Amino acid sequence: MPAPSPAPTGSGAPRFGVNYTPRTGWFHSWLDLDPDAVGEDLQAIASLGADHVRVFPLWPLLQPNRTLIRLRGLEDVRTVVDIAATVGLDVVVDAIQGHLSSFDFVPSWLATWHRRNMFTDPAVVEATAELVHSLSARLADAPNLVGLTLGNEVNQFSASNHPDPDVTSVAEAEAWTRTLLAAARAGAPGGMHTVANYDAAWFMDDHAFTPDQSASLGDATVVHSWIFDGTGQRYGARSFEVAHRAEYYLELARAFSPAPQRPLWLQEVGAPRSILTEQEVPWFVRSTFETAMQCPELWGITWWCSHDVSRSLADFPPLEHTLGLFDEHGRIKNAGEAFRDAVAAAREAAPPAPRGREIEFPVGRDPLLERSAAAPGGSVFEAWMDASRAGERPTVRVVRERAAITAGDTRTGGAAATRPVP
């Protein structure tokens, strides 16, 4: 298959993919990779009409010591990428895991007696960059490699609400991101390399990873949209706000872009049964696709996730056992059928019409932007939803002045800043 474009422009047909959660053993399957099982899983994903998958090798297995990168681990990642090619799937590889489904996968050389700041310690940053470079170099000649993403919401380790945060400044967060993206680019010059920050970067006022970083560093702006961030709880499962949550997030992200044609990637979105009933899931899948497709510069939608986490595995939040398009036995679910139908419909959809009214978002000029007004329940969120409900097809315009937020305004709460990281 032809190699993916190394420098996407946001034009052309959007891509549709799935975040791959292995059916057998979850991500612990990297301990003892079974290529046949991987092939079965990826063939099932391809049968839904997906054109790409995002995969998650575990950081401690690739780099168990600061100066040891396991060649066998790199080969296992390449094996998965090559298997994907046989079933017609392109691959995005997350380079630092990091954090997945409430569990942390941080190597022992960063923990307890060896506790160091992953974002600011020079030796740690150098070692992490070496892993990213080694991984990207091993995958660079794979014709179906889209590129690397820096971890899965790794920015949560720096958040003020984390139980043991790696305290980081805005400048240090930007330097870390630039260093690792440069390592990915050096190893795989033709890849689309991105950073995947969870929504504290967009909604938490004191967070070191900022919207400006997400919207300017790397080759696309990545968003992870989850309705358990306060949207579903505040407005209700079948609310207008839930149906348009991802669309709003993409338009918010576009507002921070320094380049009009910069691609937007809805890299994670799923149907949490903590908010939705099983009967409501097909509606949510369809609504999310239809509304996200109204955003110009949409590069793609990548659904979370392929397979349910097996109930034989302990200590997961209950919703993690229900998020798959397939169940733990590999049987397609209602969500999978809805995804397949939504992909088919999206491929026939007309290009989005121009957006309409601009909702002003005064963010201030300080490095730590005043962001919480954009969170669910905030004044910007509410104004955008009201305009959208009125048919105005709103977008967002960032105003670089001191944010005019009234101290007693209860609508600037920023619920997403305290939501649990998936």
Quantity of strands, as a count: 12
User: In CATH, what is the homologous superfamily of the largest domain?
Assistant: Glycosidases
Q: Helix content range of the residues, please?
A: 25-40%
What is the CA-atom radius of gyration, in angstroms? Answer: 20 Å
Count of helical stretches:
13
Classify the secondary structure makeup into a structural class: alpha/beta
**Run of helices and strands:** EHEHHEEEHEHEHHEHHHEHEHEHE
Spatial shape: globular
> Strand order across the biggest sheet?
7-6-3-2-1-10-9-8
Q: What share of residues are in beta strands?
A: 5-15%
In round numbers, the mean pLDDT is: 92
Sequence stretches where pLDDT stays below 50 over 5 or more residues = 1-10, 403-422
Biggest sheet character: 8 strands, parallel
> Under the CATH scheme, which architecture of the largest domain would be assigned?
Alpha-Beta Barrel
- CATH class call of the largest domain: Alpha Beta
The domain tally reads 2
Q: How far apart are the first and last residues' alpha carbons, in Å? A: 33 Å
Query: What name does the CATH topology of the largest domain carry?
Result: TIM Barrel
Organism: Brachybacterium sacelli
Protein name: Endo-1,4-beta-mannosidase
